Sequence to fold (646 residues):
Amino acid sequence: MDRLRTSDRAAAEELFSAGYPRLAGWVRRLVDDDDTAHEIAAEAFTRLLGRWSTLDNPQSYLYMIATNLVRDHWRKAGRERRALRAVSAGAPADQVYQPAQDVHVRELLQALPDRLRSPFLLHYYAGFPVRDVAVLLGRPEGTIKADLYHARARLRAALGDTDG
Amino acid sequence: MADPRDDLDAWMNAQVQPLPPPPGTFELIRKRARRRKMTRAAVAAAGAAAVIAVIAVVPRLVITQLQLGPSSSRGAAAGQTSSAGPARSHASTAPATPSAAGSGSPPATALPPAPPNFAATSVTFVGTETGYVLGQAGTPGQCQGPNPDICTSLAGTGDGGRSWHGVSAPVTGAPDGAAGVSQLRFYDTADGWAFGPGLWATHDGGHTWSQVSTGGLRVLALETAGQRVFAVWARCTGTGSAWAAGCTSAGLYSAAPGSDQWSAVPGAGTLSGPGGTSSAALVLAGSRGYLLAPDGLLYRGPAGSAGAWQQVTSSTGSSTGGSPSATASPGATAGAAPCAPGSAQADGQPSAALLAATTADGLVLVCPGTASGGSQPKAVYTSADGGQTWRQAGSAPAAGTATSVAGTTAGTIVLATTDGIEVSQDGGATWAAAHGPLPASGLRYVGMTTPDQGVAVPADAGLHAVWFTRDGGMTWQESAIP
Fold:
């Protein structure tokens, strides 16, 4: 069956070597632990390799997949937290190092609607141009720009509320 | 008070600390990707066999997700009256790990049983062995979940239909006007949709389902391939189980598989039909998509991106012989395909034009006429150039009413009717009735997973089974659920 051609494999391995640590680190700031970050980064690369020959921009595809996987992780983690709260009220929380600022901003990001969160993470956090984000998400550039504006406005308002 | 920008800007501008991969990670993901690609290739061989609306045949390893999801830890006890399996319990306890989802590792625990009295209305296959069916099961009032009257259920198989187990289902009912679901598709281990008329999505392999807003429109058809999912949304007024009736306009919408952000497809977002009834046929053939619009015009576009679709310019003077398309039906729109979709069948598929693909450019269009006395004329047209020219290849047997058609890359055409299954191996010129203990009331859907393997759903959901072929549609065997 289909295998990556030698040249493709070399290119994929090169992208992996160059991109995995940053992607995993990028994800790590959005999740609770290293293991989850590795799982998400590895899954994103797996899906990337599966479509290697059809992608114009593997790097941006990688981050879009990771963004979706992070979102899915948040949803599951939220459910699990709620379930755990129900059965283990009062138990001490896991002692995991979390920079306060990371946790604070991450909670606000989680509260954003998908429509605003994805462009925000891909543009401001992953650094992809608006044009690339528009192609990735299948929306016009103007819409992406508006979503980015609204995402920032919401986040700043939320930060203002909590700081105040 | 601190400037609210401080935290946000600091967070965005903070340096990402690289996290090096554990040893062997690249080899692990390479093997995993290869395994998935093999599964996908098996399905791609079926070409766009799969079809218009009822069921999708989708590649990829979903079975591991089923095993790793909470369903494996929530198990409904055997014999428990449960329509949706354990899935509709919302108490998740098992963390779903993305990497494990595609690892192909063997099941760690026993799978929950499929719910009893499973009345299948749709099937989606993932490779040749793994698939799901959606339907209603159990007894209203005794079904598991937040609302015991809601019995929408999923069952899954990891061995080509030899055995079935319970899988998560969206908490919504059978089709009733604008609400409920009857059809199912999966894109990969994470992303799937239950639809018709409503639209529900899962992005965690069926662990959880959420409703997608369609602005009051009903989803008649949905297919996924490449990096997109496409669906026909329509404005309809039908009530109860006639949810796909009275549709007056339709449009093609799409989204990235991992997102619930749907938007109208440029060039095909608004399609009107004549006479106040409308449906549309959607087929994805590899990297290409086809939409037979309510007015009989054929649109074509990229199946793997959000790019624009365009009307296929038909040629009326085809040199391939037979009946030229634009003159095939009196009163047809100029440049239209040989027949228009007409009103929708009960499951959202067109009743008057059944479309399938054999290759990216090879299309099959069955144009059923008026049914009378248990028979119906069924002209069969084919196109070798993506719908630009059509020729009448022949006629399928008159017995029964046509419900669904599938094609394979081997050129085989498989037609489901209310009388049984007919197979043509010469591009529609001659037909032979399929063998096997087929249901007496016929089939509502047929799809080919590979040139040899296919699956069909009986018109009578009360048979609690689906049918499989492993010889290109010529013989079929029943697979009881559960």
Summary: The CA atoms of residues 174 and 369 of chain B lie 30 Å apart. The longest strand of chain B covers residues 228-236. Chain B has a mean pLDDT of 77. The two ends of chain B are 63 Å apart (CA to CA).
